[in-house]
Structure formats: C-alpha cells, structure tokens
Amino acid sequence: MYLSDLSIRRPVLAWVFTILILIAGVIGYNSLSVRELPDVDVPVVTVTVDWRGAAPDVMETEVTDLIEEEVTTVEGIRSMTSQTREERAQITIEFELEVNVDVAAQDVRDAVARVRRRLPDDIDPPTVVKLDLDAQPIMWVSVNSDWMSRTELADFVDRQLSDRIQVLPGVGRVQVGGSQRFAVRVELDVARLAAHDLTVTDVAQALRRENLELPSGRIESRLREFVVRTQGRITQPEDFQDIVITSRDGVPIRIRDVAEVIRGSENERNLARFIQIPTIGMGILRQSQANTLEVTTRVMEELDAIRPDLPAGVNLQVAFDGSRFIGESVQSTQRTLILAAILVVIVIFIFLRSLRSSFIPAIVIPVAVMGTFAVMNALGFSINVITLLGLILAIGLLVDDAVVMLENIYRHMEEENEDPIEAARNGASEIGFAVIASSISLAAVFVPVAFVTGTIGVFFYEFGLTVASAIFISTFIALTLTPMLSSRLIRVKKRHMRIYHVLESGFDALGRSYKRWLERALRHRIITVVLAIAAFVIGLFMARLLPGEFTPQQDQGSIIAFFRGPEGSTLEYMDQYLKEVEEIAEDIPEIRTYMGILGFGANPPNRGIMFMTLEDRDQRDRDQFEIMVEMRRRTAGIPGIMVFLRERSPFGGGQDTRPVQFVIQHPDLEVLAEGSDELVRQLREEDGFIDVDSDLDLNKPELMVHINRDRASLMGISVADISEALQIMLGGVDVTDYQERGKQYNVIARLREEDRAQPRNLDQIYLRSRSGELVPLSNIARFEEDVGPSQINHFNRVRSVTIASNLERLALSDALDRVRELADDIFPAETTYDLAGTARDLEESFRALTFTLFLAIVVVFLVLAAQFNSWIHPFTIMLGLPLALVGAFGGLLLAGQSLNIFSFIGLIMLTGLVTKNGILLIDYTNRLRDRGIERYEAVVTAGTVRLRPILMTAVTTIFGVLPIALGLGAGGEARAPLGVVVIGGMTVSTILTLVVVPVIYTLLDDLMNKLKGRIGVTESAS
Description:
By secondary structure, the chain is of the alpha+beta class. About 55% of the residues lie in helices and about 20% in strands. The chain contains 29 helices and 31 strands. The strands form eight sheets. Strands 1, 2, 3, 4, 21, 22, 29, 30 and 31 form a nine-stranded antiparallel beta sheet that branches. α13 (about 420-445) crosses α24 (about 835-870).
C-alpha cells in the first residue's frame, strides 16, 4: 500500500497531513452556525387581503378565488391553502424545498399584480410576504406597566419597541398580542344624527373633507422661492369635534353635535395576560430561512439594550422562548458525542490491553471529527442534531479502520516475529484493500441521498455527507498516520500484567468456542441456511408490528394550548374562561410561566392561545406529556370552551403538530360541514383519538340584510349607499387619519356601542333619498337572523375541511387508516382526501426512505462487485443485512419504539455497517486460498483470525451509539430509535454473520464449481 509505505518512510509527512486537517477543522468549527435541525424550512409565501365589512363567502368569490387562479401559474408550488374569514382572505403558498423563497415571493407578487384590476376597488392593497403568517412566534416578550393604560402601553410598544426588534437580521415580523392600538374614535349617536337630519355618510364626508393637506405650489421671485403649505390637517384629536358637517339657517352643525370624539383604541376585541397580569405581548416571527438560535440571541441582546431606557414602572420579560429547547438539544448531542468517543477508547483499550496501542485510535477520533467540521463548513452545513448524530454514529466507524490496521500490524509482530517497520508495511499491505473496500462500500450507502428530495432529502443530504466525510478522513488517517505510529509505538512485550492474561485467556476461549460453532455450521450447512431464513422472516414479521410515526415525541419543556368558544362569543365571554384556564396553569407546579392571548393575530375574540413554559426537566418529576394529560383532563371540565393542547413543531412555522391532519375536499360547504361534524363525533368515541377538531364551522351568527331593490331605486338609494352606511356605522371605517409625533393613527367613525348592541338597532339607521329626505333602513330592507361560515378553507383551490387530532397509544399509520375508513362511510363518492402536516410528512417520508433503502442496497452491491471483480462475493457479503433486520426490528419492539425517520436512518446506516464484517471475512478467505490453502481450512482460519477485529469494530460501533440509544439529554427520546436500530442490528448481524457468511460462501463456491464443470463438459462434448 503506497500511502502506508510512504508514511512509514516519511513520518513527518504523516504528521503534516494530520496537522493540516486539524487546522482546517478548527477554522471550520468556528465558522459553523448552530441550529436544531438542518435548514428544512419550507419556502412559504403568504398573500393577505383585507376588505372591511366583507362576509367570508363574498371574500371567497370576489378575492380568494381570483388570486388563487392566478397564483397557480407560478412554478414550484407544493401546496396552496387559503383561509377566508370575515373581512380577510389569506392565501398561503408552500413551495418545494428546492425553490428560492425570494424568487418565489417575487413571482407571487407579479401574479397578484396581474389580478389586481379584477379585484374590488375598495379592498386594501394585497400584501405579499415570504413567511407563514399563521406561524407560531419563536419567542414571546411580555410588556406590562404599573401605571399605563392598555392603549398607552400599546402605543409605547408601537413607538419604542417593536420597530427596534423588527429591524434585527432574521426577524420576519413582530406580532403584537393583546394590543389596543391608539386611534381617534368618532362615536356617532344615531338619535342625534336623525334629529339634525344627517346621515353617517355626511359625517364621513366632512371628516375626509376637513382633514387633508395637499401640495399648494410655490411662490417664486427672482432671488427667492417659498413652498406653500396649506395647514389643512388637524393637529389635536379634540379639534375633530369642531369640524363643521353642514350649516342650517346660518347655524353650523359640528361633529360634537352628533358624536363624541374620544382618544381610544381601534377595537377592544383582544387582550393578553402574562401570569394573570395585563400585558402587551410581542411575538417574534423569524424569516422562513433564518436560524432560530441566532435570531433569539439577537433579540435577547436587543432587549438587554432596551431595558435601561424603559420608563419607571414598565417591565420587559421573556414569556416564552422556543429556542431554549433547541440550544439544550444541540448541547446534549454535543455531550453525547464526547461520551461516545470516551466509551470507544475504553473499549479499544480492553481489546488491545495496551495504553500505547489505545493511544493511536484515540488520536484518530479528534482528527477525523475536526476534519469533518472542515468539510461541513465547505458544504454550507450547520452544527445541528442531524449532523451531530452523524458524527456520533461515525465515532465507532472512525476507529474501525485504524483498529483493523493496528490489530493486523500487531499480529504480524506477535505471530510472525517481524520487526515493527516490517510488520507495519506487511500488515498495512495485507489489510489495505479490505480497509478501502469497507470504507467505500459504507460511504456508497449515502450516494442515494442525492436522489431524495423534500424534507427527508435535506436530512439525509447533511447526515449522509457528514458521515461519508468522516469515513473517508478516518480511512486516510488509517492508511497514513496509523501505520506510521504503529511502527514507532507498538512493541510486543514478553511479560504482561495479570489483567492482560485474564483478558487474553478470555479472548482465546471465545476464539476456540467460535471455531467449534463454525466447524459445526459448515458440517450442517442446510440447517444453518434454514435457520438464517427463519430469522429473516421473523424480522419481517416484527416490522409489521411496529407503529409508524414521523418523529417521536420530545419533552421540549413547553406546551401550547389553543382554545375556542362558540361562534359569536364576545371578549367578555371568553375572558371568564381564560381566567379558568389560567387558574389551572397556576395550580400545576411544573408550569413556570404562562401567557394567554384572546383575539390572537387575525382571529376573532372567541379564539385564544396560551404559551406555557415548564420547569427544567431535572427539576420536575413528570415529563411534558404527563403534564399535558393532567391539563387536558382538567380543561375538559370547562363547559364553555374547547381546549386543544399541542407541542412545538420541531420544524418551526405554524404547522399544527397534531399528527393526524386529514384533509377532506368537496365543493359543497353543507356536505363538508355535516360530514366533518359526524366524523369528529365518531373519532371522539374512538380509542386513541384525543383533541379531535375540524376547522370548519357554519354556526357563526349572521344578520342578513335583504334589500328591496325596487323600493330603494324609487327613492334614489343605491346598494352602494346602503352598504357604505352599514360599513361605517357597524364595521367602523378608517375615514381619515391623524398624525402625532411622527406616527400615523386612524380616525374611526362608528356608532356608539349601545346603538349597535341589538339587531333592532338597525331600525334606527337612516339614509338620504333622492329628494333629500331621511329614509329608515327598515323601509327598504328586511332583516333576518341566520348562521354562516366563520371561515372558508381551500386546499389546492378546492373547498376543504381538515380534521386534526392528537393520538394516545395509537400508531399514526393505524389512525390514518381508521380515519379513511370512517370518512368513506360518511362522505359521498365524489369526495377526495389528502393529508397535511405531520401525516403528509409521514407518508411522503416513508415512500422516500423505502426508495432510498432499496437504492442504497443496489449501490453497495455494485460497489462491492467492482471491488471484488465478482457478482457472487457481494451477494455473500451483504447477507448480513437481512440478518441485521432481526436485531433492528426486535430492538425497536423490546424498547417500545416506532418506525420513524430516525429509525429509518439507522436502517440505512446498517446497510453499510454490516458489510464491513463480511468484507473482512471474504477478503482474507480469498487471500488464504490464493496462497494455496484448501477452502475449508481457509474459511475456518479466516473466521478465527478475523474474529477479534470484527468484534472490536462491532463493539466500538455499538458503544459509540449507546448514548443515543439511552436517550440522554434534551430531545434524546426522539433520537433513541436510531441507536436502538444500530445496536440491535449490529449485535445480531455480527453474531449471525460470523457463522452464516462462511457457510453461504462455501455453498456458492460449490454452485460455481458445478456450473463451471457443466460448462467444461459441454465444451468438451462440442
């Protein structure tokens, strides 16, 4: 082996290579960013359109449908959903992961611009942003005061705080919860309007007419010029009440005569409390591609800079920090990496029984890890749970090549009595091909990752290339540094300590026992093969018993509660139930802090959310899920609202973390509503389904105004006149604006609260006829109480309803099968189904992972065929894979784990791991036969000689992943299935491979000899 021989002759060169790898690794490590997961944030673009006073069905037909039709022409769309509520349409476009979000956002803006002329004239301009507006903030900051009113505090947040946070790199938006934004409110008195023979339109026109400032040109002389400004804007809110609406008999009628002008808030449809203290909440939403840890760090630093400047009595507290678990998870994975390295070195020492010999693999680990950091930095990766998992798994692999090389060199010194230099050269030359072959075959497992797209593709891309990089670097070190150090450090001692003899006698006994079992298996080859096939069948059977899920649940130390009251519920109604939920949270000792918000985001007052932060895991006896069970039980006793508990999504964004996300599509809302209600009812009676809910409700109270068009036309009153009057008086319209200290605030005209509290108040609304007389609205319209949809949802342009549910002791795959079964019985045949959220990720991921596993097997087989120049030997070597499935699936069953993306990573990893043992056996058997040794003796000798290095590599791999299997640290329960699969698969495959592979080798060799004999006979006869 040229590299090994060169390193032995020129030891300084080997050290130079090593030092260069370390330098590149240090630079790379310091440059890598830290995040929880690879950058799997799906590019999302959201289009939002507001149209004051518009009902959901009107918004759907005149806004949502038109925008969706045009946006579908944009390339790269994965899915498109929309929520059309009262006064607002929100279209969320999710693009394929490979799409550049900036390009996608621009394409969507262009599409919206093309359709703008077809939209109603009086809508607010559509806004297009490159983030999911329904995403949950990564952080909530509570701002409260001992002396400020809610309106004053909201104005302070708007002026002094939110802008400073929003300009930070990576911050997408600051969402304010519980805010009552300052506005000038013109509270109209319907009786006084009628008494002065005025309509609301007259008031609105006066406000717009008397509060404006237009450019007035310039006065120019030969040497100077003046810009003329007409001071038409009102500078004090109180001055609005002096505006003249009209004059009667020379007497002006002012705003104060028909309304009260007050400093107030835009609306009182939301509130927020932090630990039962009234507050204004600032929710920090990150940009879709931003790093959560980096964003929260910047926000924390900015909050520290803000606090000294706060007025006395104003408090700034972090109410919820979604990055806390991310940081803990990454740190625990880093600690696991160090622990794995220590365990591997201890195992090597036990096998080699020499400090000098153990020193060599101990050097390989940090050098290979640092070299991998350099490659990760060059490829634009980050330090995250997935790449760190790759390194942990690679720890055992990093030393495998060095251990095999070291053990073979030592055997040449001890058994062949060669001097260190000669032993290093001969041992490296003898084992070099096997080292390279096993490394290439193991790295080849990750070639298929290039063909996997989507979320799983990103996972496997970073994981695969991280492991492959570590393997190639460790192989390079094994071929250069290891033989050089072996030639200088290893010496065969004549006398050893007692522990050496104890361990050596144990290994010798193990070797003799293995030799007897191998000889017995070679005498009963058919029985051995039958037992191996039976083990494989058992493995497949166990696989069918395993539940399937996307990712295991993780104790993230936080709970998110969503609650919903009956449609039409007021803020006062919901507030009393929010207080009950707060009392429950206060009574649970593990809950450290909590913040509740009503009217969250664009939601009506009947919807709320609460963010709860738990005590650190080591300070509580119960995990997050036990606490959720108690909270779910206690909130179920609150009769007036429904409470749904969720955990934070590991992928960020606004994704509902409930595993079941079943989308039902049908053009008829009545069919969707009736069917979804029945499906929800039946699922709530099923075992395993909890927090079952649908996002469609047709029970929102409505008051329908049916216009008598003929009568209205005779009086000269148009539908537009009626709609505008109702919109202003009941909806509250920003008729003009008011500026103060550089900020612009709305001036809102609206009826007094008591004049719009009952449906009969509509009888008191007047409009002006063509003759100038006031006409009661009841003369030209009739009123009818009805119910309508609170929100109309589309999924890929079709009306839809999504059934969501948490699960308890029920596999997601089984749950989805049951939901489909029930839905088929309830909905008509033309109904279509789809999946969203975690359910969709599970289905797509398992398809991609199954394909990846199959492709990995094919690639490894082809690589081995090329290396051994044979189609038979690769088949023999890879027989360890089906045998590994017994241990992998059996380990998952015994540990109570599931089939998920982490256990699938372990299965694909096994594809390469189990080939290493077979390569060592087959390669040495072939070498012995090339020397003229008879086949039976060659097989037995190869098994006996390679037993120790095979056990060493298997045990180091097992101990390397042992900390993962134990689920240590934050988020360890999610990663545990990966470790269980590798440990179970390696344990069983190693034991069975040592026996089965030699047997199959002899059987296939007999078969080939028979075929060659028949071919020879045929040729002789011809």
